[in-house]
Known about the structure:
By secondary structure, this protein is mainly alpha-helical. The protein is built from nine helices and no strands. The chain has helices at residues 2-16, 22-30, 34-37, 41-46, 52-63, 67-85, 90-96, 102-113, 117-129. α6 (67-85) packs across α9 (117-129). The termini are far apart. The relative contact order is 0.08.
Amino acid sequence: RMYLLGLYIEHSQQKDTPQQPVWFSDFMRKIQEPEYFAKKIEDLVKDTNYTHAHFLAIFKQQTGRTLISYITAQRMNYATKLLINTDLPIIQIANQVGYDNHSFFTQKFKEYFNLSPTTYRKKHIKSFLAPKES
Length: 134
């Protein structure tokens, strides 16, 4: 009986974790790149040949997240790298990560990190430049 139970559990776990289609895996690889995640959502969806609603449903099914939350995370994480590692103006960083509007980028950044981009930069550059104790 334990053997059958083990087979059942193994089989049911396999059904619950379907493998991603190749085209979706390719999409997920591309969306890691700044030049791709900085595009408008509509343009990303157009590249898939699915309707907007259908693709959003597929994305949620495959990842457990909404496309916008995933894209926002990618953009925000890349913005932090640019803030710390470059002296680019905030507006230019906003544009590079896919926001045309400086104010909207700042609002989203604050929602995500509870700090403005300028404060984030100042706080993290100070800790980055601080001498290390040995």
